[in-house]
Amino acid sequence: MAYPSFVVGIAGGTGAGKTTVSRLITQRVDDSVTRIPIDNYYRDLSHLDLEERAEVNYDHPDAFEWPLLREHLETLLSGNSVEMPQYDFEIHNRKEERKTVEPTDVIVLEGILALYDEEINDMLDLRLYVETDADVRILRRIERDVVDRGRDLEGVIDQYLSTVKPMHEQFIEPSKKHADLIIPEGANSMAINLLEEKLRNEVEGEGVRTWEREELERELAGERTADRDATATTE
Ligand SMILES: Nc1ncnc2c1ncn2[C@@H]1O[C@H](COP(=O)(O)OP(=O)(O)O)[C@@H](O)[C@H]1O
Ligand SMILES: O=c1ccn([C@@H]2O[C@H](COP(=O)(O)O)[C@@H](O)[C@H]2O)c(=O)[nH]1
C-alpha cells in the first residue's frame, strides 16, 4: 500500500492543454503517478433525458459532485483505493462502470475547476494553471468536440457563448490566483521537463507530504532554539 506524498492540481480553461500536460507528466513518471480527471466527477444526470442533459451548464461549479471528489481524494491520501466514476461526454453522463484507482506516490488532479474548491486546494501540494489565449482554446475545442465528443460546429459555438465563456470569466480565470505556477500554451516542453523532474524527485524522495515536511522543519527549528537556550543558561 502506497501513501501519496505529493498532489498536483492542474486547472485552466477548456482547450488550454490541461489533459495533454497531465498525460505527458503521468506517462513519463509512469506507474508512480495517478491521474484523476475532475470531469469524472460531473454529477450523475441519469434522471434527465439526453436533450435535457445537453442544456446543462457544465462549466458552473454546481455541475460537479464535490463531496465525492473530496472523499475520494482523502481516501487515496489515507492509502486506500477508490472506485472512480467514468464519464461519457457524448451522452453527457456518467458511464455505468467505475474504475478501481489505487493510491500511488503522486496524484495529478486535472480539470477546469481543479483550483476552485477550498478544501481541495488545501489538499494540493502544487497548484498549476495552464493559460492559453481564448481564441486558441476555442479553435482547439471545436476540433476536439467535433472529432472526439460527437458535437457539431453550431452546437459548440452556442455552448461556448452561452455558458463556457461566461463561466470561464466568472469561476475559472479567477481561480488562477490560487496557482503556484502558470504554464503557458499547454504542452510546452520546458514546463513538462521541469514538472517531470519535480515529480521524479517526489517519487524517489522520502515520501513525506509538503506540509508534513514543513511541520517537521518547524519542529526541528524549535528543538535547535531550545538546545541553544539550554546551552546559554548553563554557560
Ligand atoms: N502546446 C500545444 N500546442 C499545440 N496544441 C496543443 C498544445 N497543448 C495541447 N494541445 C492540443 O490542444 C487540444 C486540447 O488540449 P487538451 O489537453 O485536451 O485541453 P484541455 O484538457 O485543457 O481541455 C488537444 O488536441 C491537444 O493536442
Ligand atoms: O457533459 C459534458 C461535460 C462537460 N462538457 C464540457 O467539457 C469541458 C471540460 O472539459 P475540458 O477537457 O477541460 O475542455 C467544459 O468546458 C464543459 O463545457 C460538456 O460539453 N458536456
UniProtKB/TrEMBL annotation:
It catalyses: uridine + ATP = UMP + ADP + H(+); cytidine + ATP = CMP + ADP + H(+). It comes from the Archaea. One of its GO terms (cellular component) is cytoplasm. Its EC number is 2.7.1.48. GO terms for biological process: CTP salvage; UMP salvage. It is an enzyme of class 2 (transferase). Residues 214-235 are annotated as: Disordered. The keyword ATP-binding applies. ATP binds at residues 12-19. It is found in: Cytoplasm. It holds the Pfam family PRK. Residues 7-187 form the Phosphoribulokinase/uridine kinase domain. Its main location: cytoplasm. Belongs to the uridine kinase family. Pathway: Pyrimidine metabolism; UMP biosynthesis via salvage pathway; UMP from uridine: step 1/1; Pyrimidine metabolism; CTP biosynthesis via salvage pathway; CTP from cytidine: step 1/3. This is Uridine kinase. InterPro entries: P-loop_NTPase (IPR027417), PRK/URK (IPR006083), Uridine_kinase (IPR026008), Uridine_kinase-like (IPR000764). Keywords: ATP-binding, Cytoplasm, Kinase, Nucleotide-binding, Transferase. GO terms for molecular function: ATP binding; cytidine kinase activity; uridine kinase activity.
